[in-house]
Amino acid sequence: MGALRLSVATETLRLAQPFRIAGYVFETADVLVVELDDGTYRGRGEGAGVYYLGDDLTHMAAAIARARNAIEAGPTREALRAILPPGGARNAVDAALWELEAARRGQPVWALAGLAEAPRPIVTTFTVSADTPEAMAAVALSYAAARSIKVKLTGELDLDLARVAAVRAARPDVWLGVDGNQGFARGDLDALVAGLSAHRVSLLEQPLPRGREADLDGYRSPVPIAGDESLLSLADVAGAVGRFDVVNIKLDKCGGLTEGLLMVAEARARGLSVMVGTMIGTSLATAPGFVLGQLADLVDLDGPTFLAGDRTPGVCYDDGTLFAGPEVWGG
């Protein structure tokens, strides 16, 4: 690419309301913002890292500092995969390289990524944070335009099934999925899956802790199971076969759109479905995921909706769909 000037900034994003999942409550989200400038064109990227791996601002900033010379030398996106490991730092730099290349070529990122046609609005899930069943039902009702809702669970089996029942009663019309965020044990699965089936739940995401993937060997669930925390990058996709039905690709986990595209191809080749998710972040972080979401079976890209304020211009949520125009990122 040629010599570049790298700038790095950090931001703390305030959430509109506390966000609760199994084991964590979030009130803010820290992100790292990268800009690459060649003197004529620039590219931008945002990374949030992976909180459960300790991939925080300090870790991301240090990784980029160590790789500064290699990054400013202008590597290709493929070469970047050898310069930085999977994680938030690589995600931010990768996004900046994509946008910079798009500006230089006068082509949008979606065309560079090999999509056959311009991106269309895509249905996304809207997430209900863990709370009392009544409060969660009220949130589900407030998502009046949502066609797809995901419910956060905490590993408290009876309470979680009451939460699902309340949300389903409030919104009998929507596609419904749940996210266990590693909160359950193998012994919970039969009762959990039976309860989810009774409420027409279409996806069970990451029920077991990372590291317990072998507990799913031979388990047959009528509700498709997605791997999230268990499936970080391209190297993990092969191990999903026989354990998970769906690979949840998050750019902060895998290290960016470049690797995300490789993961889609690998998942398809192994007969697995594809989901694209996100950490909490702004529209700048969501837009690359939107490009990848054009190739996915399921999309969970509602991160900016949790923020007290987003970037301008931002992505558009309308009638249960997401659209990221070229003015947001990627030309």
Q: Describe the global form.
A: globular
Q: Could you spell the SSE succession in H and E letters?
A: EEEHHHHHEEHEHEHEEHEHHEHEEE
Helix content: 25-40%
- Category by helix and strand content: alpha/beta
Total strand count, please?
14
Radius of gyration: 19 Å
Distance between the termini: 18 Å
How is the quaternary structure best described? single chain
Portion in beta strands: 15-25%
What's the number of helices? 12
Whole-number mean pLDDT: 97
Q: Main sheet: which strands, in order across? A: 5-6-7-8-9-10-11-12
The biggest sheet amounts to: 8 strands, parallel
Low-pLDDT ranges: none
Brief summary:
The chain is an alpha/beta fold and 331 residues long. The chain is 33% helix and 23% strand.
Sequence-ordered SSE layout with sheet pairings:
Elements: E1 5-21, E2 24-37, E3 42-47, H1 57-66, H2 68-72, H3 77-83, H4 88-105, H5 109-112, E4 122-123, E5 126-128, H6 133-142, E6 148-152, H7 157-170, E7 175-179, H8 189-198, E8 203-205, E9 225-227, H9 234-237, E10 246-250, H10 251-254, H11 257-269, E11 273-277, H12 283-293, E12 298-299, E13 316-318, E14 321-323
Highlighted features:
14 strands; 23% strand; 8-stranded parallel β-sheet; alpha/beta; 12 helices
